[in-house]
Amino acid sequence: MIPTHWFLILSAILFTIGVCGVLTRKNGITIFMCIELMVNAVNLTFVAYARQFHQLHGLIFVFFVMAIAAAEAAVGLAIFISLFHHRHTIDVDEANLMRW
Amino acid sequence: MLNTLWLIPILPFAGFLLNGLFGKRLGKGFVTAVALLASLGAAVAGTIAVVQYHAAYPTGGLHLNLVYNWIASGSIGADISFQLDPLSVVMLMVVTWVGFLIHLYSVGYMAHEDGYGRYFAYLNLFLAEMLVLILGSSYLLMFVGWEGVGLCSYLLIGFYYQTDYAPAAGKKAFIVNRIGDFGFLVAMFLMFAYFGSVDFAKVSSIAAAGGVEHWLLTAICLLLFLGAVGKSAQIPLYVWLPDAMAGPTPVSALIHAATMVTAGVYMVVRSNALFRLAPGAMMVVALIGALTALFAATIGIRQWDIKKVLAYSTVSQLGFMFIGVGVGAFTAGIFHLITHAFFKACLFLGSGSVIHAMSGEQDMRKMGGLKSKIPITYWTFAIATYAIAGFPPFAGFFSKDEILASALNNPYFPKPFSWLIWSLGTVAAFCTAYYMYRLVYLTFFGNFRGTHEQEHHLHESPASMTIPLIILAALSAVGGALLGWPHHHFLAAWLKPIFPEIGGAPEAQYEISPNIEYALMLVSSAIAVIGWWIARTRFRDRGLEADDQFARNMPAVARGMENKWYVDEAYGATIVRPLEGLSQFLWRGIDALIDGTLAIVGYIVAAIGDLLRFFQTGNVRNYALMFFLGVIVFIWVLA
Hints:
A: 78% helix
């Protein structure tokens, strides 16, 4: 059986990749995908611990996270479509109306 | 009618609504018809109610007509409920019929004025509120009418709103009355707190049953009297009434002579059960009344505005009424209220007729010799003057004499105090005769002193003005003898049921031995004749020269009287200007300080905001970085 800490290391790597993506990319869709990556890294952690402790709580939590991530994706995509309508771009650096 | 008493005030109120809303569009004919019908309707409805009341309660009971529960809250409550009892009946008849006569007079007097509809709307509203005041069965409902008539008084004093003095006079009346209303309100709070009710009947029976603490009764009486002092223009709050002459003359007759200003007297009589148990408060009432009677009369001696003389005379006569109720002669107070309503309304309307003839001139120095030019006005005015001066057998003689006789023989006060009140009242009665005949001789005798144009324009007033004058003059002549012939006193017998039996308090209608009474009558008549004779010798032939001579002989006294003893100036220096100074200080000082502090706080916040806004870079990745740093710090702190 694969030890739990391997899962955790993988999860940490995925999460870090996600963070770096969010911080460095300009394209809104890409940022979005990076956020999904972070969310799924957390899911992996939940599942790993659920397996180790033989409990269902972690698994149930994962379902919630996936459902909310789906809702978030719908809202996020709607925002980007709206942004594209107005600006003809989804470069987040261009969306700076609220800047000082 | 007895179970629809609310109809009586509703009728003039409907007139107010009609004239107020549509009067301007529908023209003068409509306004006249509505106003006269509304006031006549109230008078007729009132009379029917009185006739039915007398049939239903031949011995004079209390008839209550509950309209609905106004306030119900735990153990306390108040109803909209109207009542008829002998006192309400008397007031109802005086207010509605004198009110109707003055409405009729106004049709002629106001014919050429702008704001005809507005005038009659206010006048009808006044009548409605006055009827609520006298028909209401609790202090609270009375207070509603009390404030309502105050409002109408304010509106009608300021009727000529384009001038600068009329609105100022209206405001003065309103503000001075507030001081009195404060007393009335606190008295009601005390009743609610200690008696649990403000119904006349309940309060009266609780007090009459005994056991109420003396300080409480005295406090309630003094506070109620403070309300009366404001509304009925007594020292120290009388200053608004002379200024109130800025309103149209019929208003002065109706509101500031015959009805509204007597509300204070009515209220004290209504509270007779309380007052009789608080002799200390009665002493205050009698003393204030006597001082006011004399003080105002002395000012009246040296005024030249015909309406100002009558205004001070009203203040003085109200003082007489308070002497009456103050010495426990409540019947005499109400009696004088009635006769005063007749003769003072007649005098004011007569002065209005003079002013009308003189094309708006009010200064007696410009008049003179009007007797032959406006004979009806002269004769009615002369009769009313006999009445107010106290010539037997005119109305004022009986009522004033009864008040003075009661003052001397009352069972409440120690003898020296009774003598003091009586002598103040008698001197005031002398002054009354003197200034009234001065007015008559300056106005109607001698040579005409106005401009040629005014002389050419002189004319007798139209019938709508002279008919009320004649009726009121007739009432001034015979009203006193009919209502209150000594020892065959109709009014005393009629009012008897409103004075409850109270153990420990003297009878409200005490007997005066006939010998003393006839002696005092002789004194009163002599006083009136002497006052008239002195005025006649001075003013009949010499006119204004007599005033000049007075000023030469006693310059200080003359100047004092002329300037109303500088009371307005004294109030200005001690109350008005310090208050104004305080307001200025609060506005310019305290208010500016608070505003300034808040402004500084605002500037600081704005400055911080100016610094912080540089964080809003507009770069999404920057925000994300901040977010992650924040999360890291958060976890660091938690761990």
